[in-house]
Automatic annotation (TrEMBL):
UniProt keyword Nuclease present: yes
Pfam families, per database record: Exo_endo_phos
An MF annotation (GO) of this entry: endonuclease activity
Domain of life: Bacteria
Nucleotide-binding keyword on record: no
Signal peptide: 1-20
Keyword tags: Endonuclease, Hydrolase, Nuclease, Signal
Protein name, per record: Endonuclease/exonuclease/phosphatase family protein
Endonuclease/exonuclease/phosphatase domain: residues covered: 26-250
InterPro entries to which the protein is assigned, alphabetical: Endo/exonu/phosph_ase_sf, Endo/exonuclease/phosphatase, GPI-anchor_lipid_remodeler
Amino acid sequence: MKHLFLVLFAILVSMGSGNAQEIKILTYNIFHGENPNKPRTPNFQQISDLFVLLQPEVIALQEVDSLTGRHLALYPDSVDMIKKLVQETGYRGYFGKAMDYDGGGYGEGLLVKKGSKYHTLKLPNPAGGEPRVMAWVRAELKTLEEFYFGGTHLCHEFPENRKAQLDSILSYAETLDKPVIWAGDLNFEADSEEYRSIPSYWKEAGSEAGNLQNTYGKPEAGARIDYIWYDSRKFELVEYKVIDVPYSDHYPVWAVLRLKKQTQ
């Protein structure tokens, strides 16, 4: 535990005071609120404390449960995870249900300091498998600049699903009237056809930072499948990190972006 606090303290020190136009982003697959290293042990308090400590403007969460039966083994009562995180962290929250599961819902979550126009985009599944969605919000900074932020969890079974889901996300992003950032557990690696299919003006923070650390599994025997993508015509990368905490089978992925000054 002492090691974890030292790691997080180092991250906070490296962040510095920042700039009002800088946007701190986190994406995290939270394994439905359970610590996979300690079965039937909730990870809620650790992840909510992490969010309060790091204070990103926007957080994308994957594998989020809402009022499911399996939570009865983890919590005294079935839990709406996003509602509980809102209560504990002070963020505003949104749950985008991908599917019914065990008496409740399962899907994507967003935590946002300030936002509006929360909505869920249903994603295609041409090969079948689990339903997938993307949760969206129009987020607002203290400087009143606005941007769209989306969080998703793409298909883990079929490449044709992932490709169709990516096409849907990118097509939708082009219709939005503010700069766009999107993130999540995408279930493909950087050498995949899916990754290569993304247009070059979309930049992936880890690759741009030259940090190819695994985001899933063990650091030495895992995979890099969790990403933060941004429109490089609108943003520039300031910082990127994979945060080494053992609360899920994934690691939180962190980036700081800066809005570019737009010429008239």
